[in-house]
Amino acid sequence: MLSDLRVNKEDAVCCVGVCGSTYERDAEEAMKRCRALLTDPDCDRAVRYGDIYGMMADHYGRRQQWKAVSDH
Question: 9 CB contacts (<8 Å, ≥6 apart)?
Answer without folding.
Answer: 46
